[in-house]
User: Fold this.
Amino acid sequence: MSKSLKTLSDDLWKNRVEKVNSELFTLTYGSLVAQLCRDLNYNYAEVNAHLEKMGYNIGLRLVEEFFAQTNLGRCQTFRETAEVVAKVGFRMFLNVVPQVVGVDEKQFSLVLDENPLAEFVELPDDGKAFKELWYSNVLVGVLKGALEMVQLEVNAFFVSDVLRGDDTTELKVKLVQVLKDEIPVGED
Amino acid sequence: MSTSNVAVNEAGNDLFRKEVNTLCLDYLLMETIPLSLRVTKTLSDSSKGVPTQGIRQLKIDPKKPEEEDLLFRSGGIDILLDDTAIQDENSIFRIESYGYEIGTKLADCLIYMKSDGNLQISQPLDIMKFICRDVWKLLYSKQMDNLRTNHSGTFVLIDHNFRLISNMASPLGDPDTLKRASLYLWFPCGIIRGILFSLGLEASVHAEITQFPSVSFNIQTNQS
Amino acid sequence: MAIYSLWIFDRHSNCIYSREWDNKSKSSLVNVNNAKDTAKLLFGTIFSMKNISQNLSKQNKLKSFSTLRFKCHFKETGSGLKFCLLTDPELEDMQFLLDEIYTSCYVNHVVKNALSPVDFRAGQVIGSEPFTSDIDRLVVTLPSFST
Assistant:
């Protein structure tokens, strides 16, 4: 299963994805975060919230692009979901493959060895950012939005970030509930 | 090929070898406009003393399972349909300034990328050509289609199929599409203004949808 | 007219789009009957057929089903979108058309459209005109369309 996912994502990346310079992307995102911080008066909790909301909207759309290009169906288990998110999702959009750790049927963690959003970035030296800002919080929103479209309500959050001086950048995803497939009102 | 040459090439190309999917950039740029609108609203709400709600409630509240809104989040376009948010002058200002910031940073990066020692872009016309060719190619995968000038400080840049708005179609019909697309145009205006400023040129930039999806950017520099 | 209509349902079981092709009617039949019984019955039938096919074999996926008067071609995406094309019962497999409608029309005019929702509220439909024109263009140029 793993091998076929890798083949699929390699093929996608090489042949079907339009690519752009990653520095441009990093720069655009960085400019956005910096400006958000200024506009919101360095209230990092608010900045995190806005980044997440923006990511959520992006995730709702990216997931359709994902299905349109991969033609995969829904995963059968949460474990499988973790594999597909890391090996195909991250690969086809960000060209990185995070490690999947701590998997069980209710949660998994993604450890990013490379993070295109944060290349060469340094957090502001105001004593607060290191403790309160999650720079790449847009990813949290993207995962929440994308997984909700496949009927998985999840809680996602950063556990550690190398920008904060931690050893790794780790994103934890916890399953809250599986949303039931709805049927029209009045039917049974 | 000597080893030292190879080393230089690798170091030089290292930064530019990394790529991401264009869609990431496209959607990020697309989402800055609703983000600007939301931030404007948050700031104006808090200054009026209205409690800011909605932004943090991304969890389904178990006490209110029948709350329909939580299931139908409609992909973020709610803020775009909020007319008060759109007509707020602060919104336009904010959208433009998000573009401006990105533009200033972009200019530095692009000059570096293009520096082959022969870069000469001090003349306004050269700067405009730089924007038409290099900047546009990078951001929107195509060059600007037309560049006109009256040779006294006014430039008009035309993109016949502007990627940021070319897929827009409002369910309320064409006039509505034009109205909302015009809001989006402040963003690339800001980018252009930022780049010009970085290169030493002060200008004002306005955009107009001549015939959807063709857009013309009108640049007035402070030169006679 | 071998192709009768196209219906799109989302993961909330709402009919977010319908397009009927009728030679005789001069009016545009886009999103006219979304809330009517036909749409609900169609959804119910598909829902039941999917359940039956899953119960018969775990890896099963519904592709199409036919009656005396029509054939329903079906495609479901991972995101819960359900595309149903109703055609003449003799028509061959139309999966390629459904794939094309999803990957080109839906992605271009709904997903990439900043002014369109991607998660629809009850009663909201895909109102984008270019979406309908693109679908018409794809369908009308098929040889099977005007048989």
